[in-house]
Amino acid sequence: MKVSKYLSRHLRHQPERIGLVLDPQGWVAVDELLRAMDRHGMPVSRAELEHVVATNDKRRFAVDGDRIRASQGHTVDVDLGLPPATPPAHLHHGTVAPCLGAIRAEGLRPMNRHHVHLSPDRETASRVGARRGRPVVLTVEAGAMHDDGHVFHVSANGVWLTDAVPPRYLRFPG
């Protein structure tokens, strides 16, 4: 878990902190990443890295040959090159009760990320919301959004991405 969090921090948010430069699509050479991790007190073998990537329950990382990147969730400027995709009728978003007032007023915004992250099922959204407290799962009328011209993408690990979700497309529990 420790290596996974380290990778997330440096492949999504702060590559410069360990001297990495991501390419425009967020990729970096695996060997370069391993050298940077070693220089900054997180020595990991290639086999250990491959194990973390393969066993990460959220499949947060993608490997393509000798390159690695985070699948989504970047705060640094990258273009993942994901094609537009047609979403299912409903997607879900996990949050916590203190955020509901702002969400009712403004909808879902990407905040410091490039996109709003949506889950294909309520269970995944609940796990996402639970990271910050007791989860509240919102239903997103993704099919209607798409019909109205909103663009969706789906990352390699099944997370749906869109620029924002206006309040009119949200369904709140209860």
From TrEMBL:
Lineage: superkingdom: Bacteria
InterPro entries linked to this entry: Ptrans_KptA/Tpt1 (IPR002745), RNA_2'-PTrans_C (IPR042081), RNA_2'-PTrans_KptA (IPR022928), RNA_2'-PTrans_N (IPR042080)
Key word tRNA processing present: no
EC number of the protein: 2.7.1.-
Gene3D superfamilies (UniProt xref): 3.20.170.30, RNA 2'-phosphotransferase, Tpt1/KptA family, N-terminal domain (1.10.10.970)
Keyword Transferase assigned: yes
GO molecular function: NAD+ poly-ADP-ribosyltransferase activity; tRNA 2'-phosphotransferase activity
Keyword terms of this UniProt record: NAD, Transferase
Any one of the GO BP annotations: tRNA splicing, via endonucleolytic cleavage and ligation
Enzyme class: transferase
Function description: Removes the 2'-phosphate from RNA via an intermediate in which the phosphate is ADP-ribosylated by NAD followed by a presumed transesterification to release the RNA and generate ADP-ribose 1''-2''-cyclic phosphate (APPR>P). May function as an ADP-ribosylase.
NCBIfam families membership: PRK00819.1-4 (NF002014)
Family: Belongs to the KptA/TPT1 family.
HAMAP family: KptA
Protein name: Probable RNA 2'-phosphotransferase
Name of the gene: kptA
